[in-house]
Amino acid sequence: MSDAIAACLAGALSADLAIARCLLQGESAATLRARIAQARTDSAAWHALDRLCAEAGLLERLQHMIAAASVDHAGPRDPAAVAAMFDRAVAVSPEASVALYSLGDPDRLATATQEVIAWLRSARWLRPDMDVLDLGCGIGRLIAELASQARSVTGLDVSARMIAEATRRCAGWTNVRLLVGSGHDLAELANASQDLVLAVDSVPYLVQAGVADLHAAEIARVLRPNGVWVILNLAYGWPREAEIATATAWCERFHFVPRLLGDAPFRHWDASGFVLQKPDWMDFS
Ligand SMILES: C[S@@+](CC[C@H](N)C(=O)[O-])C[C@H]1O[C@@H](n2cnc3c(N)ncnc32)[C@H](O)[C@@H]1O
């Protein structure tokens, strides 16, 4: 039994996340379905897994999306290869391409999105007088929520197809701009122009492409004094201590103050959370 299914049965991982993890690790839909059937217990967790297995074609669709996009969380890739991967993924399933644990379901994705927005608001990392950069914005699922709660939102992504989908979904918001970036820097953004840089499941790809340190320097440049960089998931497959060590190194090198280091703040999603704040004495404007 894979760790993800065992973790789900032990109550440590939701059924959605467990299924997404197994498929991402390359397990086939058929094998996964058979293993879950074999692991039958009377627990609520097993019944949740079983219900997902019974949804017609669900596991196969996700397996197809992973294969069609060649989704791969291992090994170095340059930003152009990451862009090509997400161009392919969004064409198969927009929702699954940004959050496989949504299992391609808009309602599941909306629930997870609302939880992120509520957390940002309650911690006051998001306020109405803020200019926000959504770095690696994907289909714009967060932008559609942020637009009504911030002064302006810039969505930047290396995938042109992601930005095309975000443009469709965010039509009508006059305080939103969407940009295709090079993936190497934040050249489109002026010094000290943002109050919040939000990076939801995008930093792992910067790490994978070897451009994360460059982006940390760029984020220090584009944030206003006291601005914050919120990272939800810093790297995939790393022990939490390694993620914390990297965030701590960015703080030392680029003078961020750590406000949150690796906690998992959500119920619907097991992301690690990092909040790095630019000190008020640091001004690039
Ligand atoms: C897993 S998706 C998450 C999308 C969005 N943040 C969300 O949570 O819905 C990761 C996104 O990061 C983008 N991305 C990866 N590397 C990037 C880079 N170097 N610059 C900008 N965007 C990048 C991908 O194109 C993709 O849209």
The ordered string of helix (H) and strand (E) elements is HHHHHHHHEHEHEEHHEHEE
Fraction of residues in β-strands: 15-25%
Q: What is the name of the CATH class of the largest domain?
A: Alpha Beta
Strand order, largest beta sheet: 3-2-1-4-5-7-6
Structural features, described:
The chain has 285 residues and is α/β, with parallel strands linked by helices. The protein has 13 helices and 7 strands. It folds into 2 domains: 1-54, no CATH class; 108-277, Vaccinia Virus protein VP39 (Rossmann fold, 3-Layer(aba) Sandwich), CATH 3.40.50.150. It has helices at residues 3-9, 15-24, 29-38, 44-54, 58-69, 79-92, 94-98, 106-122, 143-146, 160-169, 203-208, 212-222, 240-254; strands at 131-135, 152-157, 176-180, 194-200, 223-232, 257-263, 273-277. It has a 7-stranded mixed β-sheet with strand order 3-2-1-4-5-7-6, with helices on both faces. Strand 1, helix 9 and strand 2 (152-157) form a beta-alpha-beta unit. It is globular. The termini are far apart. Residues 79, 82-83, 86, 98-99, 136-138, 141-142, 156-159, 162, 181, 183, 200-202, 205-206, 209, 211 line the site of S-adenosylmethionine.
